[in-house]
Structures are given as C-alpha cells and as structure tokens.
Amino acid sequence: MSVLIVTSLGDIVVDLFTDKCPLTCKNFLKLCKIKYYHGCLFHTVQKDFTAQTGDPTGTGSGGDSVYKFLYGDQARFFGDEIHHDIKHSKTGTVAMASAGENLNASQFYFTLRDDLDYLDGKHTVFGEVAEGLETLTRINEAYVDEKSRPYKNIRIKHTHILDDPFDDPPQLSELIPGASPEGKPKDE
C-alpha cells in the first residue's frame, strides 16, 4: 500500500492508510494508475507548513476524483474519512486538500513540519512519507512569491504504484494511457 512519487527535486515514497481510509486511498492509487498526477505542479508551498499538489491546472482550483471519471460528474468529489487517531503530528503527513467538508477530489498536501494539530479533523489524512524526507526539505526551501507559488516550478514527474490492494473497476482500463502523457516536463 505505497506509491513512489518522482518529483523534479527527488523521490518520495508514501505509505497509505488503506485500512482506515479506503475510499481516499483507492482514489489516490487509481489516479496514480491513470497517470493523472504526471506533470502536476506543487502550486502552493508554505514554508514550514504544507506543500500542495494534485491539481492538473496548476492553479489550486482544479482537479477531479477518479470516481468522476468512472461514474460521471456527480461523483467529482467524495466524502471525508477523518479519524481522530490519525493526526498531522509529523513532517511528511499526507492529507487531502479540500475546499470544504466532503469536497475531496485530487489535490493533496504534505506537511513540512511536525505538530500541525490545528489541521486535525478538517482534512483526511491518508498516508505518510516513508522515504524521501530530504525531498520535502528541498521543497520546503523553495523560494516562493507572495502567493506561495515557487518561482522555479516543482513538479510531479511520475508516480509508480508499489502496492495496490484494491481491484481495478472494469472501466478503469479505458482510462489508463499506454505511455506517459506527451511533453512530460523536463527538469525545470
């Protein structure tokens, strides 16, 4: 139940909490499988707070869940899976970035420091960084503008599923590209 995320600043391995957050983890894994995150910007990096990505528009206002692709527009968002025993207690916590209650889609963030407990109960925490904390350190050190957007683009280059406990829905195979999207980003 883990994914390797290859970024322009290094690799990150995320272990997923599939038992506690099956809907969220399935969404994340299947979006990885259809190469949805390839080329996504880290569009918001707030030093010693969070680094947010997962929006293919790069603006922080887009993104869809895999359930939309499988079941239509009414399934663009899915519900929270908040557990009070899973907290934003350490650097490398991975959680859904949502605009409100039960509005999860594709965007997610990594915490960039310990003890961000005021986020607990507001966002679904669905994983943690198992390897690659040094990559998060590099992301945290990025120079950003007044809107917390890095001056030099930081991107997800690829995602590789290391372990997926969920069966693929039959219609998912139609969404999987034969190769990575064309024009994949060069080192920026």
From TrEMBL:
It is found in: Nucleus. PROSITE patterns: CSA_PPIASE_2 (PS50072). CDD domains: cyclophilin_RRM. Residues 7-161 form the PPIase cyclophilin-type domain. It catalyses: [protein]-peptidylproline (omega=180) = [protein]-peptidylproline (omega=0). SUPFAM superfamilies: Cyclophilin-like (SSF50891). Residues 162-188 are annotated as: Disordered. Its EC number is 5.2.1.8. It is an enzyme of class 5 (isomerase). Keywords: Isomerase, Nucleus, RNA-binding, Rotamase. PPIases accelerate the folding of proteins. It catalyzes the cis-trans isomerization of proline imidic peptide bonds in oligopeptides. This is Peptidyl-prolyl cis-trans isomerase.
